[in-house]
Specification:
The structure holds three protein chains of three kinds. By secondary structure, chain A is an alpha+beta fold. Chain A contains five helices and ten strands; from the N terminus they run H-E-E-E-E-H-E-E-H-E-E-H-E-E-H. Chain A has a single domain, classed as 2-Layer Sandwich (Ribosomal Protein S5, domain 2). In chain B, strands 3-4-5-7-6 form a five-stranded mixed beta sheet. The longest helix of chain B has about 35 residues. Classes of the chains: A alpha+beta, B alpha+beta, C alpha+beta.
């Protein structure tokens, strides 16, 4: 209960500051919190990355195993993305089956990777109709101080960039490096009052009336979007946000997804 | 358990180069999570455990409340990518049992009578596992409880001993666990010598059991020092010059 | 120099001096909390972290979260909710309040300043209203920090709070449960809030008073420059 009380109060404070052109943590409206990406920290996973956005932290692990293709795509590997909002990450998260927020998180990250055809799924076919590589992207939210979405999406692509195909474990030979064709980056923005803020922290997320995530690729194309929140956004606002999204994604890509 | 043809001890050393009475390298950090009331990250060998504690907080649903004490819950969870073959998310029979014995390992030191009707929730995430995950989880959880300000009699420390190639050894790694003859995880309060968790599978003579217990007890003292130092260091640097 | 202890640490061999935050086992006194040892008279361990537990006489800021005749149920930033009896409004009068008129006195979401009258064995917490109990809905702002950091906001013999009040030109009321009420001009409130959040974040670092003072001076200077 303590937290709810505080949220009401913080909401005013957050709103008030923003109306004066300031954010609670002193950032500019277009600034991310400090980002850190540590890759390959889980040796049991074929690829992994721990991403921190300020106090938000998300661990992503990629596992590959052999399985059967779907019957409608017999020559393509299988990609599955799953997200777990672990109860340790927030007093508001509970144990139990995935809720709408974790499903949304997983599906948006999945769409960004799928839409951009980041993984060449045809190359992930071992024997048509029989055996393919199944790629599991597991998103593990460890600490939620807002904007899990961008942290998860960045963790997913950072992990994929380092993912090795475990040919040996399955008695196969072949190229161990997973071929990655693009680097989709998610940029989430919220609207508070008439202002658009990038990378909302938890207090800002709670004070926001709407949220938009824009996932864009190396060539500036967009490969996934998700709008949520209680209120709508105007056409020109969305256009502006997509522009900001592409620009910020470029900066993040250059800084955190360059050479390993 | 014994599988022929796998040599776990060579020239008096274990496969990872350790002696019989040696722990794997450990790392500990207190207060690593912002949102939890208390937290701790604990590494031993390739195990990476993260514990978060909430509470005391209101217990829901209310019918589970205890009018006289706080109710302690413990959830042990392995991340899907923590093992060689991806683990399906969600609880299974193994994690349910581990959660139970781990809670029972900590319950004796938690002064639950100070917080009637509330819940103290402990969540342990295994981000990477390599045998000894339950004991790693208990070590992390015990420190996370202290970090949350929960009144406790003591800090609990935990380790496993086992038998490989006929020798009683400390802190089995995955290969030793898979191919060894016995595994015995335990948890204890080192100050009083009280054992709060003990499990065993495989086969040990009474003498081997006693030797194993002694080995584990000594190792728990070492782990305890690490746990205690981590908590003290979190504040002593900053409080040192204090004003107040 | 502070001495930090963890649960189970031996703090004394003098059982007679065992105070809060300690327990006696086998003729010795041990810490039962992760905290700092206070060794004056009684030996106490004051927790560095943890939830607010109401004690008789504490002044707290609460929020009405439920009306359940004849009580208002009040959140006091603790694992335990508190209750306020309708008789608190009819002291000295014959008239008794009925359910329907309760919300006219205090409604859901209202904030109050109250004193903890009694805490019973079942952790039922009874409150009494203070004379200046009602915190206006429009006036000022509330911030919540951990109750363990309240002493830092007050400072040694009130030095920190005195400085905050003077430099921010605000009315600041600190309740035992970690809620702080700040009244004044909007920009002054925001400045005080920032200072409080700074103390909350850096509570256990040394030289805090000086840093907060510096922060406030710089902010005031900046504001003067901007207004020129």
């Amino acid at each position: 209960m303590g937290i709810e009380v505080m949220e009401d109060i913080r909401k005013d404070y957050v709103y008030d500051l923003i109306e004066r052109g300031k954010r609670v943590d002193g950032r500019g409206f277009r600034d991310y919190r400090e980002i850190s990406v540590e890759r390959d920290i889980i040796i049991k996973a074929e690829g992994s990355a721990l991403v921190r956005l300020g106090d938000t932290s998300v661990l992503v692990g990629v596992k590959l195993s052999m399985g059967e293709p779907f019957s409608d795509t017999p020559n393509k590997g299988v990609l599955m993305t799953n997200a777990e909002l672990r109860p340790g990450a927030s007093p508001d998260f509970e144990t139990g089956p995935p809720n709408e927020n974790s499903v949304e998180l997983a599906r948006v990250v999945d769409r960004g990777i799928r839409g951009s055809e980041t993984i060449d799924l045809e190359k992930m076919c071992i024997e048509e109709g029989e055996k393919v590589w199944m790629t599991f992207i597991d998103i593990h939210a460890l600490d939620n101080d807002g904007n899990l979405m961008d942290a998860a999406a960045l963790g997913a692509i950072a992990s994929l960039l380092n993912t090795r195909i475990p040919n040996e474990r399955y008695g196969l030979t072949g190229e161990d490096t997973l071929s990655i064709r693009d680097t989709p980056v998610a940029v989430t923005m919220v609207k508070i009052g008439e202002n658009i803020l990038v990378d909302p922290n938890l207090h800002e997320e709670n004070a926001a009336t709407s949220r938009l995530t824009v996932i864009s690729n190396a060539d500036g194309t967009v490969s996934g979007m998700q709008k949520s929140g209680k209120e709508g956004l105007k056409e020109e606002e969305i256009v502006e946000m997509v522009g900001i999204g592409i620009e910020k994604a470029g900066e993040i890509r250059e800084k955190y997804l360059g050479d390993k | 358990m014994k599988e022929e043809g796998i040599e776990l001890i060579k020239d008096g050393k274990r496969l990872d180069g350790r002696g019989f009475e040696e722990l794997r390298p450990m790392k500990i950090e207190v207060g690593v999570l912002k949102r939890a009331d208390g937290s701790c990250y604990f590494e031993i060998g390739n195990n990476k455990a993260l514990a978060a504690v909430y509470g005391p907080r209101e217990m829901h649903p209310r019918h589970l409340q205890n009018a006289k004490t706080a109710v302690v819950t413990y959830r042990y969870n392995m991340a899907p990518f923590s093992v060689d073959d991806r683990k399906r998310p969600g609880p299974d029979r193994r994690s349910v049992e581990i959660s139970k014995v781990s809670r029972d390992a900590l319950d004796p030191v938690i002064l639950t009578e100070y917080y009637p009707k509330t819940a103290i929730d402990i969540y342990v995430e295994l981000l990477q596992s390599d045998a000894g995950t339950r004991t790693a989880g208990i070590n992390a959880a015990s420190v996370a409880l202290a970090d949350a300000g929960i009144p406790m009699r003591d800090i609990v420390s935990s380790v496993a001993v086992g038998k490989i190639d006929g020798e009683v050894v400390l802190d089995l790694n995955a290969a030793e666990d898979n191919h060894g003859e016995a595994d015995m995880p335990m948890a204890m309060v080192t100050r009083t010598g009280t054992i709060t968790m003990l499990q065993m599978d495989g086969r040990l003579t009474k003498d081997e059991f006693e030797r194993g217990l002694k080995l584990a007890t000594n190792a728990c003292r070492e782990i305890y020092e690490l746990q205690r130092t981590a908590l003290i260091e979190k504040y002593s640097e900053s409080v040192g010059g204090g004003e107040e | 120099m502070y001495k930090v202890v963890v649960p189970g640490d031996l703090v004394s061999e003098e059982v007679a001096r065992a105070g809060d935050g300690t327990y006696v086992d086998d003729g010795k006194v041990y810490a039962m909390k992760y905290g700092i040892v206070h060794d004056k008279g009684e030996i106490k361990v004051v927790a560095l972290t943890g939830k607010y537990m109401p004690t008789n006489g504490d002044i707290v800021i609460g929020k009405i979260i439920e009306i359940s005749f004849p009580f208002w149920i009040v959140d006091i930033a603790s694992p335990y909710e508190a209750r306020l009896h309708t008789s608190e409004f009819s002291r000295g009068t014959e008239r008794r309040m009925d359910f329907g008129s309760m919300s006219a006195h205090l409604d859901l979401g209202d904030l109050i300043v109250a004193k903890v009258l009694n805490v019973d064995a079942l952790m039922r917490v009874d409150l009494a209203l203070m004379d200046e109990f009602r915190i206006g809905d429009q006036e000022g702002r509330l911030v919540e920090i951990s109750h363990t950091k309240v002493p830092r906001v007050i400072g040694r013999s009130g030095s920190m709070i005195k400085m905050l009040k003077e430099k921010c030109n605000c009315f600041i009321f600190i309740a035992k449960n970690g809620r702080i009420w700040i009244k004044g001009r909007e920009e002054n409130i925001n400045l005080a809030l920032q200072a409080v959040l700074m103390i909350d974040n850096e509570a256990h670092t040394s030289g805090l008073t000086d840093r907060v003072e510096h922060f406030l001076d710089q902010s005031c200077k900046k504001k003067r420059m901007e207004s020129k």
